[in-house]
Design a protein that fits this description.
The complex is a heterodimer.
Chain A (H helix, E strand, L loop, with lengths): L1 H21 L8 E3 L5 E3 H17 L4 E4 H7 L9 E8 L1 H5 L7 E8 L2 E9 L4 E6 L4 E3 L2 E2 L12 E3 L8 H15 L4 E3 L4 H9 L5 E5 L8 H9 L3 E3 L12 E5 L4 H8 L2
Parallel strand pairs in A: 3-4, 10-11, 10-12
Antiparallel strand pairs in A: 1-2, 4-5, 5-6, 6-7, 7-8, 8-9, 12-14, 13-14
Helix pairs in contact in A: 1-2, 6-7
Chain B lengths: L6 H23 L5 E3 L5 E3 H17 L4 E4 H7 L9 E8 L1 H6 L5 E8 L2 E9 L4 E6 L4 E3 L2 E2 L12 E3 L8 H15 L4 E3 L4 H9 L5 E5 L8 H9 L3 E3 L12 E5 L4 H9 L1
Parallel strand pairs in B: 3-4, 10-11, 10-12
Antiparallel strand pairs in B: 1-2, 4-5, 5-6, 6-7, 7-8, 8-9, 12-14, 13-14
Helix pairs in contact in B: 1-2, 6-7
The chains are: A alpha+beta, B alpha+beta.
Function (chain B): Responsible for the provision of inositol required for synthesis of phosphatidylinositol and polyphosphoinositides.
Protein name (chain B): Inositol-1-monophosphatase
InterPro entries (chain B): IMPase, Inositol_monoP_metal-BS, Inositol_monoPase_Li-sen, Inositol_monophosphatase-like, Inositol_monophosphatase_CS
Chain lengths: 265, 268
């Protein structure tokens, strides 16, 4: 497992460097649209290429699921085979907007469909989150834990506006936020699902949910990083987390029940 | 009476004070915090109070005739009126909730007004080591490098920031989320980071295209940020489109190209 982690860290750092140095600050981004507000850049594609090339050279028999390859070639089914699930640049909108500092590489590794290794690297803030199943969660090599907050009204909640702009989705989003604002301390939106999960894992955030994000690559690494930090990852309905559902919620164990109840809007 | 100091001196001393306070914030950031409540979700800590003390002591030594308005002093002793006198307007720790939770958007904000006009601005995030500075007429800088607002012309490609604030009565919360709902149909996406001063800096350096906030604490949240935005080529105005009023607890900011469309959208 440690070898898989080391490989993932190396791949993440290479990609991080590509994103920042080759395509970074002061450079005009060539932005394409996957949807009205769902962006992709050559950086996303290049980063996915370097990550896949590196990991394939070490593990040619493993399977690979990447956000950009999926967009180009269609969905790859998640099987029990050792599978690398990669978001080469989570927070593309942030990256395009002068590197609003919440961007990251997210590399998850599943065996038997279970997240087993997770690496999330934010090259702008130089923060590397790592976890191996059963072996704890780390930020830049130091162990991290979820918060010990027990009260919803003292909790910091994160969510995102997402990329759908139809009326019923937006109304559901803002109605849910309205409902939650009466119950929590405050709300943050930073634009990266993977980094929101890391925020919960290191205690900066107490609660996170997102419904309708892109795919398993947004959560494969983060889910493990949260659970290895002592947190819980679940479906916003309270049911078990499903990595392909495009729905996720996370919190420490004290807040889960109250949070799940508050989410049933 | 002629000043023996130049605006550059004011800036240099403000940066020194910000860095001293920044060290205290950085040290406290990773420790357990003792939190008091100014309101149900409006927090203050001993760090806020200590930083204000340090900044005031430092600046008062150099500029004993200047006036001082600070968030924590105002909370303790009541509001001080803003006059034409050179006045330091200080938020010793903007983003207290973030500070308590270890979320890295915290800053010291030090503004100087002369004739009620923001003239010098310093905003320092000691966790991300980002120092934003500006002097009226002399440009805006991030860690010494010149910065500019974005050149975005289309609202639908613009990144908007706002905050949910600290009021939790139904009317305010409903208005807040209704406005966000309407805006989400018109902009690219939404960010909420928990620091008004850093949102203004985000506009100034082009990371954000649009910002508005209604009902923040006081002039200390914006005195520095306002000059940092305008010196980066941006506009600061009341969300209604009228002129910006530093004591109104209302603010909007954008680049000049987006301003009209933004005001139009905010009015709906």
């Amino acid at each position: 497992m440690e070898d898989f982690l080391a490989a993932a860290v190396e791949a993440a750092k290479i990609a991080g460097e590509v994103a920042i140095i080759r395509f970074g600050f002061h450079k005009t981004k060539n932005v394409e649209h996957k949807g009205v507000v769902d962006l992709v850049t050559e950086t996303d594609k290049k980063c996915e290429e370097v990550i896949f090339d590196y990991l394939r050279s070490k593990y040619p028999d493993h399977k690979f699921i990447g956000e950009e390859t999926t967009a180009a070639c269609g969905v790859t089914e998640l099987t029990d085979e050792p599978t690398w699930i990669v978001d080469p640049l989570d927070g593309t909108t942030n990256f395009v907007h002068g590197q609003f500092p919440f961007v990251c590489v997210s590399i998850g590794f599943t065996i038997g469909r279970i997240p087993t290794v997770g690496v999330i690297y934010n090259p702008i803030m130089d923060e590397l989150f790592t976890a191996i199943r059963g072996k704890g969660s780390f930020l830049n090599g130091n162990p991290t834990k979820v918060s010990t907050q027990t009260e919803l009204v003292k909790s910091l909640l994160a969510t995102e506006a997402g990329t759908k702009r139809d009326k019923s989705t937006l109304d559901a989003i803002t109605n849910r936020i309205n409902n939650l604002l009466f119950k929590v301390r405050s709300l943050r939106m930073s634009g990266s699902c993977a980094l929101n999960l890391c925020g919960v894992a290191c205690g900066r955030l107490d609660l996170f949910y997102e419904v309708g994000f892109g795919g398993p690559w947004d959560v494969a690494a983060g889910a493990l990083i949260v659970s290895e930090a002592g947190g819980l990852v679940f479906d916003p309905s309270g049911k078990e987390f499903d990595i392909t559902s495009q729905r996720v919620a996370a919190s420490n164990s004290f807040l889960k029940d109250a949070f799940t109840e508050a989410l049933q809007y | 009476m002629p000043e023996k100091y130049s605006v550059e001196d004011f800036l240099a001393k403000a940066v020194d004070a910000a860095k001293i306070a920044g060290e205290v914030i950085k040290h406290g950031f990773y420790q357990t915090k003792h939190v008091e409540h100014k309101g149900q979700v409006d927090l203050v800590t001993e760090t806020d109070k200590k930083c204000e003390e340090l900044i005031f002591d430092n600046l008062k030594q150099h500029f004993p005739e200047h006036k001082f308005i600070g968030e924590e002093t105002a909370a303790a002793c009541g509001a001080t009126e803003l006059t034409d006198e050179p006045t330091w307007i200080v938020d010793p720790l903007d983003g207290t909730t973030n500070f308590v939770h270890g979320f890295p958007f915290v800053c010291v904000s030090i503004g100087l007004t002369i004739g009620r006009i923001p003239t010098v601005g310093v905003v320092y995030n000691p966790i991300m080591d980002e120092l934003f500075t500006a002097i009226r007429g002399k440009g805006s800088f991030l860690n010494g490098k010149a910065i500019n607002v974005s050149s975005q012309t289309e609202l639908v490609k613009a990144l908007l920031a706002t905050e949910v604030g600290t009021k939790r009565d139904k009317a305010t919360v409903d208005e807040t989320t209704n406005r966000i709902n309407r805006l989400l149909f018109k902009v690219r996406s939404l960010r909420m980071c928990g620091s008004c001063a850093l949102n203004l800096c985000g506009i100034a350096c082009g990371r954000l295209d649009l910002f508005y906030e209604l009902g923040f604490g006081g002039p200390w949240d914006i005195a520095a940020g306002a000059v940092i935005v305008t010196e980066a080529g941006g506009h600061v105005f009341d969300p209604s489109g009228k002129d910006f009023d530093i004591t109104s607890q209302r603010i909007a900011a954008s680049n000049p190209l987006l301003k009209d469309a933004f005001i139009e959208t905010l009015k709906q």
